[in-house]
Amino acid sequence: MGLVVQKYGGSSVADAEGIKRVAKRIVEAKKNGNDVVVVVSAMGDTTDELIDLAEQVSPMPAGRELDMLLTSGERISMALLAMAIKNLGHKAQSFTGSQAGVITDSVHNKARIIDVTPGRIRTALDEGNIAIVAGFQGVSQDKKDITTLGRGGSDTTAVALAAALDAEVCEIYTDVDGVFTADPRVVKKARKIDWISFEDMLELASSGSKVLLHRCVEYARRYNIPIHVRSSFSGLQGTWVSSKPIQQGDKKVEQAIISGVAHDTSEAKITVVGVPDKPGEAASIFRAIADAEINIDMVVQNVSAASTGLTDISFTLPKTEGRKAIDALEKGRTAIGFDSLRYDDQIGKISLVGAGMKTNPGVTASFFEALSDAGVNIELISTSEIRISVVTRADDVPEAVRAVHSAFGLDSESDEAVVYGGTGR
After folding, report:
1. What pLDDT is attached to residue 416?
2. CB atoms within 10 A of CB 303
3. Which region holds residue 305: left if phi is over 0, alpha if psi is between -120 and 50, else beta?
4. Per-residue model confidence as pLDDT tens digits over 215-265
């Protein structure tokens, strides 16, 4: 008997019929001889609705109370799912994140998991129960406050539990049939990937691919937990994410030169204008950003003007952190000595990802030629061994993604990709 951890997103449990459909799939896994632990998200758009409600009451709700509010969504879906499973004649027991032993730091709204102590989950499994766990939440180690892991945190909950329970696989059920070579909502001919390495999936996730959260893949790689991304709306095989290629029958699935094209329109760009070109200036700028607990993505520094000895430094960050970053930099303006700040939230990022590109000359040239042919202007460029990313105007992103996808022969010749629930998660 193996142990399987399954995670179901909000679109999979959006209504009563969806919950009953998911319950049947869970019971089927139990009948196949597995111990089953299920992590579930809030129903449909519940989390967004709760956030809207909080903002109607308070324009800047306290982090602790917002976490208390938002975690109610997962508690509703976990209890309903346990009821549906019991109606099918199987034992089930639901647990909040804290009851499941998900221990986090004390940062509200975007806590990180420190440890998982799943004693109650093991007991429930030993008693023959299917364990249902509320995703996206935990309890802080120091103050014992309820915390949330940030958007998409249920994926991380599932992989963390799989690691703690030594599960054979973590199955992530969503509303698409697996990981695709591009967002199916933007590229209708996107092709499903049968297997992808942790490294490539990490790059796709960090570059904007929403099917898996970056922290989830990072956690899975660290503990070598295979992830199986599947749709809860179909019986198709989906995509395996693991350290080694999978075997399908007599054929080993090898990694392609290019894994896919990802895009992200949730970032903004800040340019620090007129920075003295001397040691320590960049450090002061990014220390101010770090002290404000803001994560940045791409960084570009221009060559300084010989006549003034001044340079400009641009970087990208989440739009939601834009105001906080501007305030942090303005506070240190005198000490740093820059002239002004420019803020631009009408940008988009396009990334080409593939481990094979480091040994295949011409990939970079083909990427930029595709963007040029599509009339897309490039503002920033960032590269790694397995990724090329550029920043463009937000309006250019859909056309740029389709152009690059076609240029690298990633278009599918068969049926168009299907987004069953309409969100791609």
Report:
1. 62
2. 8
3. beta
4. 899 999 999 999 999 988 888 889 999 988 766 555 555 566 899 999 999
Strand partners, 251: 248
Q: Which residues of 222-233 are buried (b: 16+ CB within 10 A; e: fewer)?
A: eeebbbbbbbbb
Please indicate whether residue 273 or residue 309 has the higher confidence score (pLDDT): 273
Distance, CA of 395 to CA of 417 (rounded, Å): 23
Q: How confident is the model at residue 17 (pLDDT cuts 50, 70, 90)?
A: very high
Residue 227 belongs to some domain of the structure:
yes
Residue range 26-45: mean pLDDT, rounded? 95
CA 23/CA 89 separation, integer angstroms:
11
- Print the domain residue range for 170: 3-247
Q: Find the CATH number of the domain harbouring 240.
A: 3.40.1160.10
- CB under 8 Å to 323, separation ≥6 — which residues? none
Report pLDDT digits (tens) over 111-142.
999 999 999 999 999 999 999 999 999 999 99
| pTM listed for this prediction | 0.86
pLDDT digits (tens, 9 = 90+) for 332-346: 998 899 999 999 999
Q: Where are the alpha helices (DSSP H) in 58-96?
A: 63-87
Strand, coil or helix: what is 191?
coil
Phi-psi region for residue 106, left (φ > 0), alpha (ψ -120 to 50) or beta? alpha
Please report, to the nearest 10 degrees, the dihedral formed by the alpha carbons of residues 194, 167, 213, 189 taken in order: 20
- Residue 58 resides in a domain: yes
Q: What is the DSSP string of 285-309?
A: HHHHHHHTT-----EEEPPPPTTT-
DSSP 353-371: E-GGGGGSTTHHHHHHHHH
Q: How many domains does the chain have?
A: 1
Residue 207 CB partners (closer than 8 Å, separation 6+): 262, 263, 264, 349, 351, 353, 387, 389
As given in the structure block, the two tokens for residue 94 are 């639901």
Identify whether the C-beta of residue 300 lies closer than 8 Å to the C-beta of residue 315: yes
CA distances from 128 to 34, 90, 116, 175, 401 (A): 11, 9, 21, 29, 48
